Amino acid sequence: MAKRKNRGRRHPLASAALLILGLAAVGGGYTVVSEAADASAPAPAASQLTAEDGQRLYMANCATCHGVEAVGTKNGPTLIGVGAASVNFQVMTGRMPLAFQGPQADQRNPQFTQEQSDAMGEYIQTLGAGPDKPDEEWLDTSATGVDIANGAELFRINCAMCHNVAGAGGALTEGKFAPNLHDIDGAHIYEAMLTGPQNMPVFNDNNISPEEKRDVIAYLHYLDESPSVGGWDLGSLGPVSEGLFIWTLGLGSIVALTVWLTSRPN
User: Fold this and answer.
1) According to its UniProt record, how is this protein modified after translation (predicted)?
2) Per the annotation, does 182 bind a ligand?
3) CA-closest candidate to residue 53, choices 118, 114, 98, 110
4) For 50-109, how does the pLDDT look when each residue is reduced to its tens digit (9 = 90+)?
5) 11 is in an annotated binding site
6) What is the tens place of the pLDDT at every residue in 4-31?
7) Which residue ranges form the domains of the chain, and what is each CATH number?
8) Is 252 exposed, middle or buried (0-12, 13-18, 19+ CB in 10 A)?
9) 62 is in an annotated binding site
């Protein structure tokens, strides 16, 4: 008698396929429900962010290095008393959160919005009074009384030894550097002078007044807007790049001329 074919037997992969389809259906349904819930419950306006929101952002993104109570760890300094100005500078220039451990933090695209940075700054300010963000009055370089020449002199005396007189930046020791100051937001220039990030000294209002800080910002913005009257500026790095250019072009021309002269038949 011929064997009767077993029609009820499942393929070995049928159970796995059903499991995958079930997981996909559950995941898809959850996504749809979540999106619908998000759409029906509007998020709080950014202006409603408070110091409590800033604390939550801090705990999620900063506490690993700076400590739960912001007193610092071996991986990051204390934030007690640094103030909202320091938070805004570090966060909105993308230096924090730190991308990797190195001689100093590099400028990057910011990882937070301005409102989130303000909320974290407000939280840090509650831990200990420190320099606050500058008033718009001291960032308005078009205001009456702004003196670009005075800003240039102040920059030359206090900043050019590291940042170069043209704000092109420069190398420091142990892999550190003074960053390029071209196309920098005025608030960040002011906050850097006020808080002294990384290797920079602090220029508080007793050293350089708010009016003088505004003059320095005006000078740096003037450099951004003014073309090089001498032609190709070679990166505005001064005698190093200029000397390299002269030696390379000048000596190269002399060598080429010498080879050409000696190769001519008598």
Assistant:
1) Binds 2 heme c groups covalently per subunit.
2) no
3) 118
4) 999 999 999 999 999 999 999 999 999 999 999 999 999 999 999 999 888 888 999 999
5) no
6) 555 555 566 666 666 677 767 766 665 5
7) 47-127 (1.10.760.10), 136-239 (1.10.760.10)
8) exposed
9) yes
